[in-house]
Write a structure and sequence with these properties.
single chain; Nitrous oxide-stimulated promoter family protein; 4 helices; 97 residues; binds zinc ion; mainly alpha
Amino acid sequence: MIADEKRTIKEMISLYCRKHNHSCSPELCRECKELLEYAYRRLDKCPHGDDKPSCRHCKIHCYSQDMRARIRAVMRYAGPRMLLRHPLSIISWLRHI
Ligand SMILES: [Zn+2]
């Protein structure tokens, strides 16, 4: 579900941002906020909606190269750390990239 994916990506980016000390407040730093908004927009615009198969097999390739690299860095860091808590949404996110 898109709503679950949004919640998960937000947690992953927050964890990543916090652990890398990007920001001295509990808020996301500017770059991570931008990345989160970008990910939200891509989810909202995805024409496959909730029955999206897997972005890897999707012909649209909606992420720009730069954003894809940034989201991958977040996944590499936060994915394994959050896998036990949100196994299904993480697996679904791993298929996005
Ligand atoms: Zn950050």
